[in-house]
Design goal:
Blueprint (H helix, E strand, L loop, with lengths): L3 H17 L3 E2 L8 E2 L2 E12 L5 E15 L3 E14 L4 E12 L5 E10 L2 E11 L7 E7 L3 E5 L6 H13 L4 E6 L10 E7 L25 E9 L12 E8 L4 E7 L3 E12 L9
Antiparallel strand pairs: 1-2, 3-4, 3-16, 4-5, 5-6, 6-7, 7-8, 8-9, 9-10, 11-12, 12-13, 13-14, 14-15, 15-16
Helix pairs in contact: 1-2
């Protein structure tokens, strides 16, 4: 049975990883990764749908904004609105609004999301997570939907931290990157096992940039990589385990992503970059 609320919160988990990597930029002479503040707008369409998926039509738009720096932390805001028609003919309007803050070291995360269905609040999640150092377990404190405390194993990645390591792997020529990821979705209680496959680098101008926005055309001068990430339920533990969903996209060396595809097996959606705006870079004297 298709459950729109669960679906869109899982979409957020995937989009978060993809978009939180947007704007990552390695500065000359630095081995670290800086994230360029920006705003990206994507058109959402249904790529395909099998008979048993429960979805016949879908369209919408996603707006994502990133501001901040390594020393002040990164604030992310996203709104994802869609109109969907089920196979039974029901029309559903979904509106997902999210906000999060993650410190530059990847040791603390605050998250907040609200899911509306046909203009009524259907689910809300709020909480924070943190650790004293990279070898420590992650302590999660939830305030919505219920007050709850969780402990996650050491080595669990937060989204911006994960995006940073993914970009470093691509720049270093590595083809695989695996990690456990926590982003506060699924009521703030789930860690996904992720496996990323990074393709061979595409040199600047080797592939066309499919976006009409003038700012996006600046991407033509940058190298990029094809990336596919599979998401597994925790403790899948099998070589032949089937992922819950897969995310693929084109990853530019400044972190911007295009050609988003999210595949659930019996249906998939496309995210086409419509508008890209690089925002003013903040003054971070400690960097």
């Amino acid at each position: 049975m298709f459950r729109p609320t669960v679906f869109f919160l899982r979409i957020f988990a995937l989009v978060c990883l993809m978009l939180q990597a947007n704007g990552a930029l390695a500065q000359p002479g630095q081995q670290g990764v800086n994230f360029a503040p920006h705003r990206a707008v994507y058109d959402i369409t249904l790529a395909r749908s099998a008979g048993g998926s429960g979805i016949s039509e879908m369209s919408g738009r996603m707006v994502y904004e990133l501001v901040g720096s390594r020393c002040d932390g990164y604030t992310q805001n996203m709104r994802f609105a869609t109109r969907m028609t089920t196979s039974q003919g029901a029309r559903i309007i979904n509106d997902l609004i999210t906000s999060s803050w993650e410190d530059g070291a990847g040791d603390r995360l605050r998250f907040n999301s609200s899911q509306f269905q046909n203009q009524r609040l259907s689910q809300a999640t709020q909480g924070d997570a943190g650790r004293s150092d990279k070898k420590s377990q992650v302590d999660v404190n939830l305030t919505k939907p219920d007050k709850k405390k969780l402990k996650l194993q050491p080595g669990t990645y937060f989204p911006m931290q994960h995006a940073t390591e993914l970009l470093k792997s691509a720049r270093a020529g590595r083809t695989l990157f695996s990690a456990n990821l926590f982003d506060g979705t699924d009521s703030g209680q789930k860690v996904y096992e992720t496996n990323a496959v990074i393709g061979k680098v595409w040199k600047p101008g080797a592939k066309p940039v499919v976006a009409s926005d003038k700012e996006a055309q600046r991407l033509k001068a940058l190298a990029s990589w094809p990336v596919a990430i599979s998401y597994f339920e925790p403790n899948a533990g099998k070589v032949d385990a089937v992922p819950v969903y897969e995310l693929s996209f084109r990853y530019f060396e400044n972190g911007v992503t295009t050609k988003l595809v999210i595949d659930y097996g019996d249906f998939a959606i496309n995210g086409k970059l419509r508008e890209l705006t690089f925002l003013e870079v903040g003054d971070c004297k400690r960097e």
